[in-house]
Amino acid sequence: MALTKLNQLYRAVIVDHSKNPRRRGTLDNKTTQIEIKNPTCGDVIEIQLEIKDNKIKDIRFDGSGCTISLASASMMTDSVMGKTLEEALLLSEDFSSLVQGKDPEHEDDLGDAVMLSGVAKFPARIKCATLPWKALEKALTSEDQSGIDSQLKHDN
C-alpha cells in the first residue's frame, strides 16, 4: 500500500513540473543556447544559459514534448541553477545513471529529478527524460560559450 502512495506522489510531482514548468521561457542576457531534438518521438528542447564566472547565473528552457521531457527540463533547471559548470555536468551524469537504474553519486543534489528514477523501467522513455540534460551537456561543453553566434542545433 505504501509503495502505491509513493508512486502516486512521484506521478503528481512529474505532472506538476510538466503542467507548471519552472524556468520556462527566454533569457534576455543569455550567453549560450542550444536546441536539440529527439527525432524518434518529436520532442524538441531549447536551453538558454547565462554563464558568469564559471557558474550558471540563470537558465531557461522552452520546447515541446511529452510529459516526461518537459518535466525533466523543469527539474533540470532547478537542479543546476547556481551551480558551477563542472557541478552541472556531474549532475547530468548522475541523472543519466539514475534513469538507467544505477545509483548516482550525488542523488540528493538532483532535487525533484530523482522522481524520474522509474523511467528506468521504460527504456523507450529514457531518451525523453535525458533530452534536456543532453542539451545542457552540449551547451556547457561547446567550444565557444562567449555568445549567441555559437548556437548549436543537434539531433540527439
TL;DR of this structure?
This protein is of the alpha+beta class. The protein is 42% helix and 19% strand.
Would you kindly provide a written description of the structure presented here, covering whatever features stand out?
With 156 residues, the chain is of the alpha+beta class. The protein has a single domain (2-155), classed as Sufe protein. Chain: A (Alpha-Beta Complex). The protein has 4 helices and 4 strands, in the order αβββαααβ. The protein has helices spanning 2-19, 67-80, 85-99, 123-141, and strands spanning 32-37, 44-52, 55-64, 152-155. It has a 4-stranded mixed beta sheet with strand order 3-2-1-4, with helices on one face. A hairpin with a 2-residue loop joins strand 2 and strand 3. The longest helix is centred in the last third of the chain and has 19 residues, at 123-141. The chain is globular. The model is unreliable at 144-156 (pLDDT under 50). Residues 10-128 form the NIF system FeS cluster assembly NifU N-terminal domain. InterPro entries: NIF_FeS_clus_asmbl_NifU_N (IPR002871).
